[in-house]
Amino acid sequence: MDPYIAVLLDGEFVRKVLQYRTKPGLVTNVTPTLILAEVERILGHPDLTDHRLYRIFYYTADPSRATIVHPVTRQKNSLGQTETFTHSRWLTKQLETSPDVAVRRGTLAFRGWKLGSSAANALEAGSKSSVEARDIVPDLEQKGVDMRIGLDIASLALKRFVSTIVLVTGDADFIPAMKLARREGLRVLLDHLGRHVNSELRVHADLCI
Questions:
Q1: Closest Cα partner for 32 from 111, 110, 90?
Q2: SS3 75
Q3: Most buried in the list 52, 100, 103, 123, measured by CB within 10 Å?
Q4: How confident is the model at residue 61, as a pLDDT?
Q5: What is the DSSP letter of 185?
């Protein structure tokens, strides 16, 4: 009998990488087709061609509907009426109705305001000398997503549904779950989509794709 494989996609990581790859880098450029093409690439790896797909797990946070007030301009903004909200809902809906895909949802919490990464990088590089109102952006935090990934890795390992897991992420927080799966006899492969990741994450994978 052919061995089974599960592909676990850290949705926030995958979306950010694919958004960076597409030009001009708009969030709406990320489509289900692009995401599932990455899975097809993974399944076509020489070490995996004899495996049968058990399931694709996609982890994401439901977008926030909160109404927030900018600390400088005092302008109100409803996150539920943004292009990002609409696209996120559409993307998740399309993926969860795709064959062999299971979507696991966490929540997205508004934690206040922070300096945007572009402004921070510009200040550090010296190409920007002051902070403007537009540089202050919402601080949104995913809740429950990492826990769901860890629990699914543990469940797949302990119940022996698959022989191989491919984890698509750049987050070193999953190392304990990866170690558990390997101790239980599963092969754990890592795909970091070509991005720089913590070396410890590589250490605890049987193979980096």
A1: 90
A2: coil
A3: 103
A4: 94
A5: T
Count of beta carbons in the 10 Å neighbourhood of residue 91: 23
Phi, psi of 164 (to 5 degrees): -140, 140
Quickly tell me which residue has 């795709």 as its tokens: 98
The backbone torsions φ and ψ at residue 20, rounded to the nearest 5 degrees and listed phi first, read: -65, -35
Q: How far apart are CA 183 and CA 177, in angstroms?
A: 10
What is the per-residue pLDDT across 51-95, written as a single tens digit (0 to 9) for each?
A: 999 999 999 998 888 898 998 899 998 888 888 889 999 999 999
Rounded distance between C-alpha atoms, residue 124 and residue 138, angstroms: 20
Tokens of 43: 């399944």
Percent of the chain at pLDDT > 90 equals: 65
Residues 6+ apart with CB under 8 A from 110: 64, 66, 68, 79, 138, 139, 140
Query: What distance lies between CA 20 and its chain's CA centroid?
Result: 13
Strands 4-10 vs 52-62: parallel, antiparallel or unpaired: parallel
> Which tokens go with 112?
């206040």
Annotate 169-208 with DSSP letters as a single string: ---GGGHHHHHHHHHTT-EEEEE-TT----HHHHHTSSEE
Nearest to 136 by CA among 118, 104, 155, 113: 113
The pTM of the full predicted model, rounded to 2 decimals, is 0.89
User: Over the chain, what is the mean pLDDT?
Assistant: 92
Cα within 13 Å of Cα(126), Cβ side: 0
State the Cα–Cα distance between residues 31 and 128, nearest whole angstrom. 34
